[in-house]
Amino acid sequence: MLDILKQFKKSQFLWNLAGFLANFYPLTKFNKFPKDIAIEVTNNCNLHCPVCPTNFAMSRERGFMDLKMYQSIIDEFKGFKDKPRIIFIFAGEPLLHPQIDQFIAYASHHGHDTFLSTNATLLSKELAKKIIEADLKLIHLCLDGATKESHEAYRFGSNFELVKQNIENFLTIKRSMNCQYPSVCIQSLLTSFSENENTKIMDWARSSGADSIQFKSLSLGSVTTPEMRDKYQYLLPKNEKYLRKKSKIKKTVCTVPLTQTIVCWNGDLGLCCVDMNNDIKMPNVKDSGLLKQFFSPEAKQARKKGLCKKYKLCQNCSLSQSDFMGWHVEFNKS
């Protein structure tokens, strides 16, 4: 116990030191392109997962991104050799957007790597073909367990049989089109219902033709109330090694604002993937463009405050405070 306590104190000291030094991190370091631009094509979702803030905590207006505004964002990078990856994942379900394949294709055809994550409930055969033809680079298809009970324990409103069939159809269509991409990753949430099904769902994913599987730790959320956390505590894995937060160490620095930015459906810049309600106000890119606003003094100051975890939402962030996010398994196709 004494050794553990000593290790904790040493680690916390280093985090405290990092937090102190981050205050002196120069603003000039924020004059770099983000590695990832998260595009919120919509903040609507067709499911009602219990601790997802899109479901219970989002008060901002709902809507769908305009394709022309999105294209203007991509056009800003035409003259650059190194382009940020475009990721279609934030507050909503991207397949709800009727032009999602056009969003993917425009970025892909202009030299950007593209990534999409979906609950796969709307992944029809027709849409699957369009997404593959759009030259998507990577897709995460979510199936949270190997049984109906496990999957639907968290994915409220989803249908296990339908999602599983949609994923199998997608993989069959990809093979029939003889396409290398998108690389298909099955994402599976680790809950008390699914934690003992890892081998079973991994075997299914491999035999179905997926390229990999990602087991993801469950978070009870960054903005859930104590009452909600008590109510849904039963979803947490019983095996402690699968828990997202295990230690009492408080991490004092978050590097996400250095590498990623969010563009909400209406053009508002977002600080990070935890600020689902866009509480941290940043400039809008609609009129002046992404790069001008991303490198504006206002946006750089906001990102530095995010680096130093100065915002209220940073203190309970389930991502930046995590000890364990899960693991990834690549399948050997040879």
Explain what the structure shows.
The chain has helices at 2-22, 53-56, 67-75, 100-108, 125-133, 148-154, 160-176, 198-208, 226-231, 256-259, 290-294, 297-307, 312-315, and strands at 36-39, 85-88, 114-118, 138-142, 183-190, 212-217, 260-263, 269-270, 326-330. A nine-stranded mixed beta sheet has the order 8-7-1-2-3-4-5-6-9. The chain has 334 residues and is α/β, with parallel strands linked by helices. It is built from 13 helices and nine strands. Helix content is 35%, strand content 13%. Helix 3 packs parallel to helix 4, helix 4 packs parallel to helix 5 and helix 5 (125-133) crosses helix 7 (160-176).
Question: Secondary-structure map with pairings?
Answer:
Elements: H1 2-22, E1 36-39, H2 53-56, H3 67-75, E2 85-88, H4 100-108, E3 114-118, H5 125-133, E4 138-142, H6 148-154, H7 160-176, E5 183-190, H8 198-208, E6 212-217, H9 226-231, H10 256-259, E7 260-263, E8 269-270, H11 290-294, H12 297-307, H13 312-315, E9 326-330
Parallel strand pairs: 1-2, 1-7, 2-3, 3-4, 4-5, 5-6
Antiparallel strand pairs: 6-9, 7-8
Helix pairs in contact: 3-4, 4-5, 5-7
